[in-house]
Amino acid sequence: MASYLVTGAAGFIGRSIAAALVARGETVRGIDNFIAGKRANLVGLEAMEFLEGDLADPAACAEACAGVEIVFHEAALASVPRSVADPVATNVNCVDATLNLLVAARAAGVRRVVYAGSSSVYGDAPTLPKHEEMLPNPISPYAVAKLAGEHYMRAFTRVYGLETVVLRYFNVFGPYQDPTSQYSGVLAVFCRRMLAGEQPTIYGDGEQSRDFTYIDNVVHANLLAAAAPAEKVAGQMMNTATGTRITLNQTFGILRELTGYSGQLGYAKGRAGDIRDSLADIRRAGELLGYKPIVDFREGLRRTVEWYRSGV
Ligand code: UD1
């Protein structure tokens, strides 16, 4: 049986992947430094071996990779505005961490690393949908850092033969996403505020759109990427999304129904580094992984609202 490592295991996406592996009865180790991750997210993951450690520390990477066959590398400071406020911290926790992890993975004889890429690498080019043949055009330090990680993945496949697969996530949302930070994803923030009867704020006119991707689709893509034949996927990158998009104003309308919020919506100045529209072409993941979304936006949002409502 394979042995798995999930980095960022106390974060939203890492926790969700780890839970799916644990549910399958796999041997799973998780690592997190709790900069963005939360101890509460480890509840229910008692079957996972957990290391508190920082990937910026090569010794922690070595300990985490020992005896592992497949790594899901989810650890990052996943926020555009956070990277605008502190680009060095983003670089340390995304770029240095990724390189240290790859070096340790290679030394430990890890077979495959599946990497959490980001749609932010496409930048604000007006072309829609975003497809993988497009030249990357990162416009925030976060996007630069996530792109550097992608390049390290491909280079480690090319020069060392380590199997790497890059999944470029598009605006992931769902249970366990932290709604409390100033850097939280918009749907998490809106769910929390609207359930509490507090007014949410849209930055800009609300006509910006996103390919919001429910977490189960991302977990599904990761499991497929771990299992796909190396000839097909090693050294490859592909979008992980739904192939549909929705504006923030429309999202607010749906959330009103789901939460019962009857108050107003506020508007404020647009955010620096923000992009207007984002929509993925998901054909490549379909061809290489047999991926297609398993939960649509509305159903995902319904489940998400219920999770925040339950106050877990
Ligand atoms: C970006 C990246 C994504 C990355 C994520 C991490 C793109 C296309 N995507 O997402 O890959 O994983 O950062 O954070 O670049 N907003 C509000 N009100 C709020 C909060 C946000 O209106 O209270 C707006 C933002 O200004 C933005 C949209 O909602 O226009 C989405 O914001 P957010 O959820 O932070 O994600 P992105 O910045 O799109």
Pick out its properties.
Rossmann fold, 7-stranded parallel sheet, two-stranded parallel ribbon, binds uridine-diphosphate-N-acetylglucosamine, single chain, 312 residues, alpha/beta, globular, 11 helices
What does the model show?
With 312 residues, the chain is an alpha/beta fold. The chain has a domain at 4-173 and 213-243 and 279-294: NAD(P)-binding Rossmann-like Domain (Rossmann fold). The chain is built from eleven helices and 13 strands. The chain has helices at 12-23, 58-65, 80-85, 87-108, 141-160, 186-195, 215-227, 230-233, 248-259, 283-289, 297-310; strands at 3-7, 27-32, 49-52, 70-73, 112-118, 163-169, 172-173, 201-203, 209-210, 213-214, 236-240, 246-247, 266-268. It has a seven-stranded parallel beta sheet, sandwiched between helices. A two-stranded parallel sheet has the order 7-10. It has a two-stranded parallel sheet with strand order 8-13. α6 (186-195) packs across α11 (297-310). The longest helix has 22 residues, at 87-108. It is globular and about 55 Å long. The mean pLDDT is 96. It binds uridine-diphosphate-N-acetylglucosamine (UD1).
